[in-house]
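Q: What residues go here?
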C-alpha cells in the first residue's frame, strides 16, 4: 500500500475504484506526472476511468494538501505525492524531467536580513535547473554525428 493511500485512508477519504487507481498511479519516488500522464497510466489499470475523473481527483488531492502541484516554465502542471516530506526540485531545462532533492541547510537562513525587507519568512522554495544525463548523452550523440 502506498504512503498516499494510507494517508487518504487515515483521513477517511472515500476511496472509490477511480480514486484508488489515481492514488496508486501517483505512488513512488520522484513521481511528477502531468494529469494526462496520470490518466494514461490509470486507463491501463481501469480502462473505463474518465479524464474528467482524473482531473477532479487530482484537484481534490491538491486541495487536501496530499499532492503538490508543480508548475515549471510554462509546461504542463505536474503532480507530486511527496507532499509531507520537505524537499526541493531539480528540473531538466530541456526535457522537463523533475527529481526530488533534499539539500542540507535551511534556505530561509541563507537569505540575509538586508534582503528580507521586514518580511516574517515562513517558507522558501528552491528550484535547481540543469540538464539531465539523458539529454546530455543525446547532445553528445548529436555532436558526434
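A:
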Amino acid at each position: 500500500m502506498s504512503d498516499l493511500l494510507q494517508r487518504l485512508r487515515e483521513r477517511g477519504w472515500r476511496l472509490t475504484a477511480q480514486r484508488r487507481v489515481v492514488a496508486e498511479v501517483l505512488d513512488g519516488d520522484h513521481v511528477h506526472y502531468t494529469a494526462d500522464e496520470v490518466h494514461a497510466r490509470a486507463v491501463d489499470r481501469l480502462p473505463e476511468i474518465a479524464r474528467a475523473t482524473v482531473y477532479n481527483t487530482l484537484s481534490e488531492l491538491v486541495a487536501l494538501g496530499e499532492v503538490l502541484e508543480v508548475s515549471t516554465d510554462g509546461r504542463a502542471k505536474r503532480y507530486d505525492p511527496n507532499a509531507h516530506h520537505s524537499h526541493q526540485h531539480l528540473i531538466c531545462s530541456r526535457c522537463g524531467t523533475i527529481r526530488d532533492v533534499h539539500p542540507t541547510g535551511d534556505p530561509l537562513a541563507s537569505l540575509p536580513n538586508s534582503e528580507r525587507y521586514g518580511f516574517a519568512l515562513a517558507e522558501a522554495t528552491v528550484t535547481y535547473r540543469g540538464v539531465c544525463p539523458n539529454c546530455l548523452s543525446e547532445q553528445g550523440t548529436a555532436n558526434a554525428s
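A: Context that may help when evaluating the design: Strands lie at 33-34, 68-70, 78-80, 88-92, 98-101, 127-130. The mean pLDDT is 89.
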